[in-house]
Specification:
The protein is of the alpha/beta class and 438 residues long. It has 19 helices and 13 strands. Its cofactor is heme.
Length: 438
């Protein structure tokens, strides 16, 4: 029965694909990344964006959810798209992928909103002091595992979830202490659903049984979040204020007036950053607002890392409301546009030696500047609301680690010649050794 149901879905999908996949005239000469290309990249473990860079000439196209999407890696177009939000509003995900776990989980929020939002003012009112007061942790985890390989990718994800919980919601997810608790499990279950490359490529949620199972997991996570909000309302009603982000958002809602390196090179970078941290901070563990600005080399390292490995390879989809002329191409109105951050960050037209890790390229303050070559947090009026939050967290963690540990790759690491990407910009497990400094 399941086999025949699956076969019927496949046939319906192929019929819809045949009907809807006709290439508009203006897109015919744009190189296409086919579904076969993506599938082949997944099964050969070469699904990273480096494979796209080889064929990228400022613009690519692909078919997704029966819609043609243009991947833009030209900074001039990117700047126009990000600044002209009336002409290029964010795509409505509930229309793009209706009745899916993705639209249910992410469809209506500040990330995909094109309008004004009170959340911007919440982030502006959110102080560095409150950040440190809530998220500074001791380093027992590193002390207990000193000189042992630590898988850093999952550790940083767990740490970040705990930080966000305490700072944003005044709630301890306790991901580091108990990664199997109900909140963490529900969150991880949904993350696996929306980031599954096979499910995205073959749109497995078109099978009703799979879609219903996924939606149940999303509903479970939503219920847990709603319970946190309910408890926050109770605390506010009782006069208990923590000053966290959720509290600021709830108050704003009530007030509508609020609007590749060798080991030697790696050690050199690490030593230069450590010297700066020790020189500027002295005996202080927590950098002040002014000291944050003075950590110039550390900030250059963070910017260069985000250039090589942006947290997301592309920005939120935009939908063109009018024809877009680009060189010999005429992209018709109604086309989904995707700003290809990873492509821009690795373009030899925009960066000298783009595949090398060179923090010094950010010495000049106008490198990021007006031409939009660096879009780690997007740009324009709808720039990522949490950019300062992210930068503060990165500086804080790096200051803590550099003061106390020397960091190196685990022996025989697969990453010894450069970071190996598993899918999109997500690396294979990355083990580091933290040796306590004398």
């Amino acid at each position: 029965m399941i086999f025949w149901a699956f076969l019927a879905i496949v046939i319906i999908f192929l019929i819809n694909y045949k009907i809807n996949s006709k290439v508009p005239d203006g897109l015919k000469n744009i190189h296409t990344i086919t579904s076969f290309d993506m599938f082949l990249g997944i099964i050969t473990k070469q699904a990273g964006h480096d494979s796209y860079i080889q064929i990228l000439k400022n613009i690519l196209k692909k078919m997704e959810s029966l819609r043609w999407i243009c991947m833009i890696a030209d900074p001039v177009i990117a700047k126009n798209v990000l600044l002209q939000t009336d002409i290029y509003p964010k795509a409505n995900m509930e229309e793009f992928v209706p009745n899916s776990s993705f639209s249910e989980y992410l469809g209506t929020n500040v990330v995909f909103s094109s309008g004004d939002t009170c959340v911007q003012s919440c982030f502006q009112n959110f102080t560095i002091a409150s950040f440190f007061r809530n998220c500074i942790k001791d380093d027992r985890y590193f002390r207990n595992n000193c000189k042992k390989p630590i898988e850093i990718k999952n550790l940083m994800q767990m740490f970040t979830l705990d930080v966000l919980g305490k700072v944003a919601f005044g709630f301890d997810f306790n991901n580091l202490g108990n990664p199997d608790n109900a909140y963490v499990k529900a969150y991880n279950d949904v993350q696996k659903i929306i980031l599954d490359p096979i499910a995205i490529l073959f749109q497995t949620e078109r099978i009703p049984m799979i879609r219903q199972q996924n939606l149940k997991k999303v509903d479970k996570l939503s219920s847990l979040f709603k319970e946190i909000i309910k408890e926050k309302y109770k605390a506010l009603a009782a006069g208990k204020s923590r000053g966290d982000l959720l509290e600021l958002m709830l108050n704003a809602n009530e007030n509508q007036d609020n609007q590749m390196l060798s080991d030697t090179e790696l050690r050199n970078v690490q030593e230069n950053a450590r010297e700066e941290v020790l020189r500027i901070l002295g005996d202080n563990l927590i950098p002040s607002a002014e000291q944050h600005k003075s950590l110039k080399y550390l900030n250059m390292i963070i910017c260069e890392n985000l250039r090589l490995y942006p947290s997301v390879p592309t920005l939120v989809y935009r939908e063109s409301t009018e024809d877009l002329k680009f060189k010999d191409f005429l992209i018709p109105a109604g086309t989904i546009l995707e700003i290809y951050t990873y492509g821009m960050h690795h373009s030899s037209k925009l960066w000298d030696k783009p595949e090398e890790f060179l923090p010094e390229r950010f010495e000049k303050e106008n490198v990021i500047g007006e031409n939009y070559p660096w879009l780690a947090f997007g740009g324009g009026s709808r720039m990522c609301l949490g950019n300062n939050f992210s930068l503060i967290e990165q500086r804080m963690v790096l200051c803590l680690l550099l003061r106390k540990y020397e960091i190196s790759l685990a022996p025989n690491s697969i990453h010894k010649d450069g970071l190996k990407i598993k899918y999109l910009t997500s690396p294979y497990p990355l083990e580091l050794i933290f040796k306590r400094r004398d």
